[in-house]
Write a structure and sequence with these properties.
The structure holds 2 protein chains of 2 kinds.
Chain A: H1 6-16, H2 22-39, H3 72-79, H4 84-89, H5 101-109
Chain B: H1 13-21, H2 27-45, E1 48-51, H3 53-68, E2 79-83, H4 110-117, E3 121-126, H5 160-168, E4 173-178, H6 184-190, E5 193-196, E6 216-221, H7 224-234, E7 264-267, H8 269-275, H9 280-295, E8 299-302, H10 308-333, H11 340-346, H12 354-374, E9 380-384, H13 409-414, E10 418-425, E11 431-437, H14 443-457
Helix pairs in contact in B: 2-3, 5-6, 7-14, 10-12
Classes of the chains: A mainly alpha, B alpha/beta.
Chain lengths: 110, 466
């Protein structure tokens, strides 16, 4: 049993904000002695850099939302396959070549 | 529609579910039979704190409609009852305490909601140790539950009403909670099955907490198979419970018949021979259980874990400190309203230093790793659930509460699944509990071994002499 003086216990009880009658105080002394005996079994000589068991784990980051799916008429249009002819005619716009510096100057004067 | 001449209150969930699905048993008839049994036996057993007769019959009638529409599941129309720390909408939830005598929650606990959605019928709320800690108390508004095998004996706790109700046929299944053995001990003393699932598998939202680091919610029933059916309904991620883990769940019932041949079983002989010496009957039961598992094709060898005392020394300060923190305000202002047993178990938490608490949490990590290491050699571990059959109520000594290590506490510290099944009987006819533990997330395996053990050992045919 872990020894505890009545004064030490009275101080601890005051600090805990408890108001105990003599019977309840005797119960607390008994419970504390049993708990302290158990606690004394726990090893304390751990390396300082040992793992921290008491950790706060953040929830995993939210996954990026999938791009919105088209709805209604737009969805039908998007889902419809493009006819081969149209596909061939529709060429991607070719970006204009920038003018050589001399021609660009003339154009600017005009 | 009923099974002629059969005792409806002694059906298992699997049997009742089968009869209901085949339209040979009506949920209303089953519910009425159970309510009648509760009315007849509860005054002697004190398993129920609150019976919900009207709403149970309404739920049973709704279940009948579901059956008529052929939309039933395995729990449609099955009468269940919950430990009175599970919040139930519109139904008193007292935690067996004067402090919550008038508490009527607005919402169901997540697990209760899932069972309700599965079509189960709630018969009522069951006795517990006050706030799920301590022992039988006679200074509370309700008396403690009595053991149906012998009314002068302790049910075990804290899910005391669950153990008593299931053994007596006052419900077909139940939900309990387990912080240091509170599902498995009543399962052992009352001769039923009870599973403490892997921490994080079952939501604890809406279950009045005791020690959030170690609390787990889980099922109790007459058989391991019934526990699997209940677990299928309640397991699964709950984003609103921060301890709930998003892992795949389910398939517990389906997996019960997979073979156990070749499984490596570790026999924790030191648990009940050296650490917490058990009675000769209990030792005999564990050896006989090992032989039964061998007869099923398992390979049994002796295993070792750190001594039970090491797990106990870590768990108790954590439980006391966390429970004290939860109850601090009421302990300061309404101390007299608690039972003496509760005060003895929790008040010491006022004096646990932060350094002691953190040392306990850090050592818990070591014990988790040591337990995991044992499962590299073994698929499951077995031991006794308790070192003796149910002790006499009169012999319960609350003053010694923290001096007796529990064989169940290692599974709480290690956060692993542990099932207690009826392993056999004492010479006096009292049930003895066998504990089956597996590595984290092996709940299906533990239930499978428990189910096949029960079938081979034939312990489910015997009922209390009521």
């Amino acid at each position: 049993m872990v020894p505890v003086t009545p004064e030490e216990m009275a101080q601890a009880v005051r600090r805990a904000g408890l108001s105990l009658n003599p019977g309840q105080l005797a119960d607390l002394v008994l419970a504390w002695q049993q708990l302290a005996t158990l606690s004394a079994r726990i090893p304390r000589d751990r390396p300082l850099v040992d793992d921290m068991t008491v950790v706060f784990r953040l929830p995993p980051p939210a996954m990026p939302a999938p791009p919105p799916q088209p709805v209604g008429k737009t969805a039908k249009k998007a889902a419809k396959p493009v006819p081969a002819k149209v596909a061939r005619k529709k060429k991607a716009p070719v970006p204009r070549k920038p003018l050589p510096p001399a021609k660009a100057k003339k154009k600017a004067r005009r | 529609m009923s099974r002629a001449g059969a005792a409806l209150h002694h059906l298992t969930i699997a049997e009742a579910g089968g009869l209901i699905a085949a339209r040979k048993l009506s949920p209303v008839e089953l519910t009425k039979a159970l309510l009648q049994r509760v009315e007849q036996l509860n005054p002697a057993l004190d398993a129920y704190l609150h019976v919900c007769g009207k709403s149970a019959l309404a739920a049973a009638r709704a279940a009948e409609k579901t059956v008529a529409a052929r939309a039933q599941g395995p729990l449609t129309g099955i009468p269940l009852a919950y430990k009175d720390i599970y919040e139930t909408r519109g139904v008193p939830t007292t935690a067996h305490s004067r402090l919550l005598q008038d508490n009527v929650p607005r919402e169901d606990a997540e697990t209760v909601r899932r069972l309700h959605d599965a079509g189960a019928v709630m018969l009522g709320k069951l006795a517990t140790h006050e706030f799920a800690i301590g022992g039988p108390a006679f200074d509370l508004p309700w008396p403690p539950a009595r053991n149906p095998w012998d009314r002068d004996r302790f049910t075990g706790g804290s899910s005391s009403g669950s153990g008593a109700a299931l053994a007596a046929g006052l419900a077909l299944g139940s939900l309990g909670s387990d912080t240091g053995g509170s599902i498995r001990l009543p399962a052992a003393y009352c001769g039923v099955a009870g599973l403490k699932p892997t921490a994080g598998l079952v939501s604890r939202r809406g279950v009045i907490p005791l020690s959030p680091s170690l609390d787990t919610a889980g099922p109790l029933a007459w058989t391991a198979e019934d526990c699997a059916i209940l677990l299928d309904a309640i397991a699964g991620h709950d984003p609103l419970d921060s301890a709930s883990v998003p892992v795949p769940s389910g398939g517990y019932t389906k997996g019960l018949t997979q073979p156990v041949k070749g499984l490596r079983v570790g026999l924790l002989r030191h648990f009940h021979e050296r650490d917490v010496p058990a009675t000769a009957e209990v030792r005999q039961m564990v050896l006989a259980a090992a032989k039964t598992l061998e007869s099923l094709g398992c390979v049994v060898e002796e295993a070792t874990l750190p001594p039970v005392q090491e797990y106990d020394a870590v768990a108790r300060p954590i439980i006391c400190a966390e429970a004290y923190a939860l109850h601090e305000q009421w302990l300061r202002t309404r101390l007299e309203d608690y039972s003496r047993v509760f005060r003895l178990r929790v008040m010491g938490g006022a004096l646990v230093r932060a350094a002691d608490y953190i040392a306990a949490q850090r050592t818990r990590g070591d014990l988790i790793r040591a337990t995991e290491a044992a499962f590299q050699r073994f698929d499951i571990l077995i031991s006794a659930t308790a070192p003796q059959a149910a002790p006499r109520l009169a012999d319960q000594k609350p003053d010694e509460g923290l001096t007796r290590p529990l064989l169940t506490i290692p599974a709480n510290v290690a956060a692993i699944p542990a099932l207690s099944v009826c392993g056999g009987f004492s010479a006096g006819g009292l049930p003895l509990g066998l504990q089956i533990m597996g590595p984290a997330w092996s709940d299906a395996l533990v239930l499978r071994v428990g189910h096949q053990f029960e079938e081979a050992a034939g312990t489910r045919a015997r009922r209390p002499p009521l």
